[in-house]
Amino acid sequence: MPNDQNLPSLMIGVAGGSASGKTTLARELAVAAGNQVAILELDRFYHCLGDAPNKHLSNFDEPASLEFDLLEDVLEQLRRHGTASVPMYDFATHNRIGYEPLDAAPLIVVEGILVLWHSSIRDLLDVKLYVDAPTATRFERRIQRDLHERGRDSDSVAKQWNETVQPMHEKYVEPSRQHADTIIDGTADLRKIGKELSASWLT
Q: How far apart are CA 21 and CA 25, in angstroms?
Protein backbone atom coordinates (compact mmCIF):
# COMPACT_ATOMS: atom_id res chain seq x y z
CA MET A 1 0.00 0.00 0.00
CA PRO A 2 1.27 3.55 -0.58
CA ASN A 3 2.84 5.47 2.26
CA ASP A 4 -0.28 7.35 3.35
CA GLN A 5 1.23 8.83 6.48
CA ASN A 6 2.62 11.81 4.55
CA LEU A 7 6.04 11.09 5.98
CA PRO A 8 9.22 10.51 4.01
CA SER A 9 10.16 6.86 3.78
CA LEU A 10 13.22 5.58 5.62
CA MET A 11 15.40 3.69 3.14
CA ILE A 12 17.29 0.81 4.70
CA GLY A 13 20.01 -1.18 2.96
CA VAL A 14 20.57 -4.76 4.08
CA ALA A 15 23.75 -6.27 2.63
CA GLY A 16 25.92 -9.25 3.47
CA GLY A 17 27.36 -12.40 2.00
CA SER A 18 25.39 -15.15 0.35
CA ALA A 19 23.40 -17.08 3.00
CA SER A 20 24.49 -14.70 5.75
CA GLY A 21 20.92 -14.11 6.91
CA LYS A 22 20.17 -10.82 5.17
CA THR A 23 17.03 -12.09 3.42
CA THR A 24 15.81 -13.58 6.70
CA LEU A 25 16.37 -10.26 8.45
CA ALA A 26 14.45 -8.40 5.73
CA ARG A 27 11.56 -10.84 6.09
CA GLU A 28 11.56 -10.51 9.86
CA LEU A 29 11.43 -6.73 9.50
CA ALA A 30 8.40 -7.16 7.25
CA VAL A 31 6.72 -9.51 9.72
CA ALA A 32 7.36 -7.13 12.61
CA ALA A 33 6.23 -3.99 10.79
CA GLY A 34 3.54 -5.47 8.55
CA ASN A 35 2.30 -3.20 5.78
CA GLN A 36 4.64 -0.45 6.93
CA VAL A 37 7.50 -2.14 5.08
CA ALA A 38 8.21 -2.44 1.34
CA ILE A 39 10.98 -4.85 0.35
CA LEU A 40 13.01 -4.38 -2.81
CA GLU A 41 15.34 -7.25 -3.71
CA LEU A 42 18.58 -6.48 -5.52
CA ASP A 43 18.11 -9.78 -7.39
CA ARG A 44 15.41 -8.07 -9.47
CA PHE A 45 18.10 -5.99 -11.17
CA TYR A 46 20.23 -8.61 -12.87
CA HIS A 47 20.98 -7.87 -16.50
CA CYS A 48 19.04 -9.90 -19.05
CA LEU A 49 21.22 -12.58 -20.58
CA GLY A 50 18.99 -13.21 -23.61
CA ASP A 51 20.03 -16.26 -25.58
CA ALA A 52 23.65 -16.21 -24.47
CA PRO A 53 25.19 -19.69 -24.45
CA ASN A 54 25.92 -21.26 -21.06
CA LYS A 55 24.28 -18.31 -19.36
CA HIS A 56 23.66 -20.41 -16.26
CA LEU A 57 27.45 -20.36 -15.79
CA SER A 58 27.61 -16.56 -15.66
CA ASN A 59 29.08 -14.83 -12.63
CA PHE A 60 26.06 -13.54 -10.73
CA ASP A 61 28.13 -12.37 -7.77
CA GLU A 62 30.06 -9.53 -9.38
CA PRO A 63 28.76 -5.94 -9.64
CA ALA A 64 28.77 -6.03 -13.46
CA SER A 65 25.92 -8.54 -13.38
CA LEU A 66 23.56 -5.95 -11.91
CA GLU A 67 21.89 -2.86 -13.37
CA PHE A 68 22.59 -0.38 -10.60
CA ASP A 69 21.49 2.62 -12.67
CA LEU A 70 17.97 1.17 -12.85
CA LEU A 71 17.96 0.51 -9.11
CA GLU A 72 18.99 4.10 -8.51
CA ASP A 73 16.13 5.32 -10.70
CA VAL A 74 13.64 3.12 -8.85
CA LEU A 75 14.76 4.37 -5.43
CA GLU A 76 14.53 7.98 -6.57
CA GLN A 77 11.03 7.35 -7.96
CA LEU A 78 9.92 5.79 -4.68
CA ARG A 79 11.23 8.74 -2.72
CA ARG A 80 9.85 11.45 -5.02
CA HIS A 81 6.56 9.93 -6.15
CA GLY A 82 5.74 7.18 -3.65
CA THR A 83 5.60 4.49 -6.30
CA ALA A 84 7.81 2.93 -8.96
CA SER A 85 7.77 0.26 -11.64
CA VAL A 86 10.20 -2.51 -10.66
CA PRO A 87 11.54 -5.35 -12.83
CA MET A 88 10.56 -8.99 -12.49
CA TYR A 89 13.43 -11.38 -13.14
CA ASP A 90 13.05 -15.02 -14.14
CA PHE A 91 15.97 -17.06 -12.80
CA ALA A 92 15.05 -20.05 -14.92
CA THR A 93 15.74 -18.13 -18.14
CA HIS A 94 17.92 -15.35 -16.66
CA ASN A 95 15.79 -12.73 -18.35
CA ARG A 96 13.52 -9.89 -17.33
CA ILE A 97 9.90 -10.87 -17.86
CA GLY A 98 8.18 -7.57 -17.17
CA TYR A 99 7.61 -4.95 -14.53
CA GLU A 100 5.24 -4.52 -11.61
CA PRO A 101 4.36 -1.57 -9.36
CA LEU A 102 5.89 -1.10 -5.93
CA ASP A 103 4.45 1.46 -3.55
CA ALA A 104 6.55 3.19 -0.95
CA ALA A 105 6.00 2.53 2.75
CA PRO A 106 7.36 4.13 5.93
CA LEU A 107 10.21 1.61 5.72
CA ILE A 108 11.75 0.64 2.37
CA VAL A 109 14.19 -2.26 2.71
CA VAL A 110 16.67 -2.79 -0.14
CA GLU A 111 18.21 -6.25 0.25
CA GLY A 112 21.08 -7.95 -1.57
CA ILE A 113 24.72 -8.94 -1.38
CA LEU A 114 26.03 -5.80 -3.09
CA VAL A 115 23.62 -3.16 -1.79
CA LEU A 116 26.44 -1.32 -0.02
CA TRP A 117 28.96 -1.67 -2.85
CA HIS A 118 27.69 1.06 -5.18
CA SER A 119 28.30 4.60 -3.94
CA SER A 120 25.24 6.13 -5.64
CA ILE A 121 23.00 3.55 -3.99
CA ARG A 122 24.62 4.12 -0.60
CA ASP A 123 23.96 7.83 -0.94
CA LEU A 124 20.21 7.14 -1.19
CA LEU A 125 20.10 4.96 1.93
CA ASP A 126 19.28 6.38 5.35
CA VAL A 127 20.34 3.26 7.25
CA LYS A 128 22.99 0.77 6.13
CA LEU A 129 23.13 -2.71 7.67
CA TYR A 130 25.58 -5.52 6.97
CA VAL A 131 24.64 -9.05 8.04
CA ASP A 132 27.71 -11.11 8.84
CA ALA A 133 28.17 -14.85 9.37
CA PRO A 134 31.20 -17.20 9.30
CA THR A 135 32.18 -18.58 5.89
CA ALA A 136 31.56 -22.17 6.97
CA THR A 137 28.06 -21.29 8.18
CA ARG A 138 27.22 -19.48 4.97
CA PHE A 139 28.51 -22.35 2.84
CA GLU A 140 26.44 -24.94 4.73
CA ARG A 141 23.33 -22.74 4.46
CA ARG A 142 23.94 -22.25 0.74
CA ILE A 143 24.28 -26.00 0.20
CA GLN A 144 21.04 -26.72 2.05
CA ARG A 145 19.14 -23.94 0.29
CA ASP A 146 20.21 -24.89 -3.21
CA LEU A 147 19.63 -28.60 -2.64
CA HIS A 148 16.14 -28.18 -1.21
CA GLU A 149 14.86 -25.04 -2.95
CA ARG A 150 16.61 -25.06 -6.32
CA GLY A 151 16.98 -28.76 -7.07
CA ARG A 152 20.74 -28.65 -7.46
CA ASP A 153 23.36 -31.21 -6.47
CA SER A 154 26.03 -30.58 -3.86
CA ASP A 155 28.93 -30.82 -6.33
CA SER A 156 27.59 -28.04 -8.55
CA VAL A 157 26.83 -25.84 -5.55
CA ALA A 158 30.34 -26.34 -4.17
CA LYS A 159 31.89 -25.63 -7.58
CA GLN A 160 29.97 -22.37 -7.94
CA TRP A 161 30.86 -21.39 -4.38
CA ASN A 162 34.57 -21.95 -4.93
CA GLU A 163 34.75 -20.38 -8.39
CA THR A 164 32.56 -17.29 -8.05
CA VAL A 165 30.56 -16.90 -4.83
CA GLN A 166 33.38 -16.82 -2.29
CA PRO A 167 35.98 -15.06 -4.48
CA MET A 168 33.46 -12.30 -5.29
CA HIS A 169 32.50 -12.14 -1.61
CA GLU A 170 36.12 -11.50 -0.68
CA LYS A 171 36.64 -8.99 -3.50
CA TYR A 172 33.41 -6.99 -3.36
CA VAL A 173 30.96 -7.95 -0.63
CA GLU A 174 33.17 -8.20 2.45
CA PRO A 175 34.90 -4.84 1.79
CA SER A 176 31.49 -3.14 1.55
CA ARG A 177 30.89 -3.78 5.24
CA GLN A 178 33.04 -0.71 5.98
CA HIS A 179 30.12 1.41 4.77
CA ALA A 180 27.60 -0.12 7.20
CA ASP A 181 26.19 1.83 10.12
CA THR A 182 25.62 -1.43 11.99
CA ILE A 183 26.96 -4.97 11.67
CA ILE A 184 24.32 -7.62 12.40
CA ASP A 185 25.26 -11.11 13.58
CA GLY A 186 23.63 -13.43 11.06
CA THR A 187 23.76 -16.33 13.53
CA ALA A 188 21.78 -14.42 16.18
CA ASP A 189 18.01 -14.35 16.71
CA LEU A 190 17.04 -12.36 13.62
CA ARG A 191 13.37 -12.37 14.57
CA LYS A 192 14.19 -10.53 17.78
CA ILE A 193 16.54 -8.16 15.97
CA GLY A 194 13.91 -7.46 13.32
CA LYS A 195 11.34 -6.58 15.97
CA GLU A 196 13.74 -4.31 17.82
CA LEU A 197 14.88 -2.49 14.69
CA SER A 198 11.41 -1.96 13.26
CA ALA A 199 10.15 -0.68 16.62
CA SER A 200 13.01 1.83 16.84
CA TRP A 201 12.42 3.11 13.32
CA LEU A 202 8.65 3.41 13.58
CA THR A 203 8.48 4.97 17.03
A: 6
Helices and strands: H and E segment counts in the chain: 7, 7
Q: Positive or negative, the Cα torsion across 162, 165, 171, 173?
A: negative
Residue 39's DSSP bridge partners are 109
pTM above 0.90, yes or no: yes
Dihedral, 147, 150, 156, 161 alpha carbons, nearest 10: -90
Q: Round to whole Å and give the CA distance between 51 and 23.
A: 29
95-111 pLDDT, tens digit per residue, is: 899 999 999 999 999 99
For 144-153, how does the pLDDT look when each residue is reduced to its tens digit (9 = 90+)? 988 877 678 8
Query: Which alpha helices (H) appear in the chain, and where do they start and end?
Result: 22-33, 68-81, 119-124, 135-149, 154-160, 166-168, 190-202
Fold annotation for 10-197: Rossmann fold (3.40.50)
Q: Cα separations (Å) of 194 from 33, 78, 119, 140?
A: 9, 23, 26, 23
